[in-house]
Amino acid sequence: MPRRYDPERRQRIIDAAIRVVGGKGIAGLSHRTAAAEADVPLGSTTYHFKTLDELLVAALRQANEGFAKIVAGRGALEDPRTDLAAELAAWVGEWLAGDRTGVELEYELYLAALRRPALRPVAAEWAEGLAELLSGRTDPVTARALVAVVDGICLQVLLTGVPYDEAYAREVLGRVVAGARE
Prior knowledge:
Layout: H1 9-24, H2 31-38, H3 42-48, H4 52-74, H5 84-97, H6 100-112, H7 120-134, H8 140-160, H9 166-181
Helix pairs in contact: 1-2, 1-4, 2-3, 4-5, 4-6, 4-7, 5-9, 7-8, 8-9
Protein name: TetR family transcriptional regulator
InterPro entries: Homeodomain-like_sf, HTH-type_TetR-like_transc_reg, HTH_TetR, Tet_transcr_reg_TetR-rel_C_sf, TetR_C_31
Organism: Streptomyces coeruleofuscus
């Protein structure tokens, strides 16, 4: 039987992997579970992703796009009059107020890099990309500190279940920005 041309198959497998991780965690993801979720033959998953780490890298890269879309959509960083701390706090609030499962999934994939070295470069892309963006408004050290604070606040909200407090985030981020000016 001739092979059917299916240009969307790779993307369907990535989407399926994200759903599997969202429902069962990373431990529940295998080529077999991704294939079943995507409704494709098992061979398709191994054709497109030789290893499970390759599939996880693709899923993490796609998950990272969630926060990047919020940042790009707001576009306020170009204006030097924009309060950097307030803008960052608003970004985080918008991100956390969105699809909570997506945010949790993004962090689960992000933290999987602790045990899966293949994921580390992709996990670092998020932090480096945001720091680079913030470096347009502050020095590189402060930009990295802001990313660390954002990361910490997000993890605290996700792990404790405490509602996001934008005023608190704005205050903490403002202190980092103010410390850079001193």
